[in-house]
Specification:
115 residues, mainly alpha, 0% strand, flat
């Protein structure tokens, strides 16, 4: 997970109150050029807290607990539960954070080069 990667990769810089070099792809430019060590440390702490909440959401025992954690991270606009489990069955015994794609897809799904 990207947030966990930030936490793992930049802990030394935060401890030293230094800003890491992050190359802007395509040009030779440090994305963090205008960020000082204190500001980066503040960003890092936010990323660390968000990584912990996201990991709790991913490892939740139920869909409801997972949704609660995602809402903690993303706010109240994060979609709620439709009271079905991860297999589309109605009830409250659902497990995991993911909603399956619809089973009855309609339309022509044949791959085409142009439209």
């Amino acid at each position: 997970m990207t947030l966990e990667t930030i936490v793992d990769n930049y802990s030394d810089e935060v401890r030293k109150k230094k800003t890491p070099y992050l190359c802007d792809h395509g040009v030779d430019h440090n994305v963090f050029d205008r960020v000082d060590g204190e500001e980066f440390a503040e960003f890092y702490e936010h990323a660390k807290q968000a990584a912990e909440v996201a990991r709790e959401a991913l490892e939740s025992d139920t869909k409801e607990k997972s949704i609660e954690k995602w809402k903690e991270l993303f706010g109240s606009k994060f979609p709620g539960s439709d009271s079905s489990d991860d297999n589309g069955n109605r009830g409250s015994n659902s497990k995991g954070p993911f909603v399956p794609p619809p089973r009855d897809q309609t339309g022509d799904l044949t791959p085409r080069k142009y439209g």
